[in-house]
Amino acid sequence: LFEFWTSNERIGLIWCTRNASGMMLKRLTAAQQARILELLNSLPSALDQNWREKMSLLNTLLPESSVVPPGSRHLLVVPDGWISYVPFDLLQSGPPSNSLLIERYDITYLPTAALLLRPQTADHRIRFPWTRELVAFGDPIFKGEGSQVIEGDTERDGTQRLRYSAAEIVDIKNRTSGATRIFLQENDLKRFFLGAEANSAFLLHVSTHAFADVDNPENSRMLFSPENRDGVPDYVFLRELYDLDLSRVSLATISACDTERGKIIRGEGMQAFSRALLSAGSSSSLTALWRVDDEPTAEFMKQFYFFALKEHRPKAEALQLAKLKFLHSNTKLEDPRLWAAFVLNGEGLTPLPAVVSWSSLALAAAIPVLVSLFLGFLIRLRSRRRQHGQHDS
Predict the structure, then answer these.
(1) DSSP states of 316-378 as a string?
(2) 62 in Cβ contact with 24 (< 8 Å)
(3) pLDDT digit string (tens) for 162-220?
(4) Which of 282, 273, 230, 279 is nearest to 255 (CA)?
(5) In what order do the strands lie in the sheet with 234-237?
(6) For the chain, how big is the Rg over CA atoms in Å?
(7) How far apart are CA 372 and CA 44, in angstroms?
(8) What is the tens place of the pLDDT at every residue in 152-173?
(9) What angle do CA 328, 331, 332 make, to 5 degrees?
């Protein structure tokens, strides 16, 4: 566990493992801090061919590698102030290999270490295929595509149709074993989301446009399809998420740009979508630090849910494996701008609840029948042999 705090030119870090703990205090000069803030403000464009060298400027945030016991696999980060904008995936873990943190650890972020006091036990209950596993919203439509959606939105792509959004959700649906409820295009409505639907499954996925308002975080918002014929789109505002009940949700994913950006309030931390989702009761959330294009986002979610649903890996490990698959792909997908944006907040050390598929249930039901038929066949065969023996005698 790394818990940070910032105060003017000083950085504090309390670290602890199961068996040890310690504290680190560092002082940054005004020049050092200016360079760091300039780097963070330039993300993700700063992640060019020299991104490893540039990101090494942030290695000062980490303690000496010797404090972390060998074999450790999980890293929990509680950031503070401007450290909330740091993609810890891209920091170097130190000698001898100077590998990235994401290559050594799965990484989970927490708005406060107090969140660890939430009761989190592995749930081994059997869930049958009629259990609602996924509810998803996406592919919003609106009148006048290509024009400005709402006054004040400066993102020019904010009104572009998300061509891969529906395919992203359908692919996730195909990886589930339980019941699903999908709201796409004209059904992607705010009233369904704010109603009971968002809390009707343990997996909530929203693929849409989002706009972060760093000055007034309560006005940060997600785009939904218009309810009325006038074509004016609806928005779910950040402030509305706090009023939701997401107590049934194990993972809430907002597959949209800048959902992990917001105003930093002293003593409260980053006011972003992840904090609102956790406050509403979701065990964990998956959001983005910056803007990522539609197509690579859909591919990244495909990989993440493969590890989370098909291989049933813990949430933080599934995210790590998806990132490593991109990083080591030797394709354009290895670009950290396409994968390092995604961050997991909340509980990450347990898998998503497992659901028995219809095929597995049918096989389980068929086995006793097959065994009974086989035993019956053996009994009849033995009886015939006895009768044949008596006839011969």
Answers:
(1) HHHHHHHHHHHHTSSSGGG-GGGTTTEEEEE--SSBPPPB--HHHHHHHHHHHHHHHHHHHHH
(2) no
(3) 899 999 999 999 999 999 999 999 999 999 999 989 999 999 999 999 998 888 888 89
(4) 273
(5) 210-211, 221-224, 234-237
(6) 25
(7) 63
(8) 443 444 457 889 999 999 999 9
(9) 115
CA-to-CA distance for 159 and 171, rounded, in angstroms?
A: 24
Nearest alpha-carbon partner for 222 in 162, 297, 281? 162
Q: Residue by residue, what is the 3-state secondary structure of 61-91?
A: HCCCHHHCCCCCCEEEEECCHHHHHCCHHHC
Q: Which residue is it, tokens 């993609």?
A: 87
Query: Measured at the alpha carbon of residue 198, what is the angle toward residues 211 and 208, in degrees to the nearest 5?
Result: 30
For residue 392, pLDDT over 90 is answered with no
d(CA 339, CA 296): 8
Report the alpha-carbon distance of residue 274 to residue 268 in Å, rounded. 13
> Strands (DSSP E) along the chain, which ranges?
2-7, 10-16, 21-27, 74-78, 106-109, 132-138, 179-184, 203-207, 210-211, 221-224, 234-237, 251-255, 263-265, 269-271, 284-288, 342-346
Report the distance separating Cα 193 and Cα 10, nearest Å: 43
Does the structure show a pLDDT above 70 at 148? no
CB 106 within 8 A of CB 320: yes
Lowest mean pLDDT among 97-106, 195-204, 323-332: 97-106
- For 228-263, the pLDDT digits (tens) are 767 778 899 999 999 999 999 999 999 988 788 776
pLDDT at 153: 41
Q: Are 159 and 168 in contact (CB under 8 A)?
A: no
- The amino acid occupying position 234 is D
Quick check: 190 and 234 in contact, CB under 8 A? Answer: yes
Q: In the predicted model, what is the mean pLDDT of residues 300-327?
A: 97
| Cα distance between residue 383 and residue 311, in whole Å | 47
- 358-390 pLDDT, tens digit per residue, is 455 555 556 666 667 667 666 777 777 666 666
Q: Which two tokens stand for residue 365?
A: 């039901």
Pairwise CA distance, residues 296 & 326, whole Å: 10
**Residue range 97-112: mean pLDDT, rounded:** 91
What are the φ/ψ torsions at residue 227 (nearest 5 degrees)? -85, -35
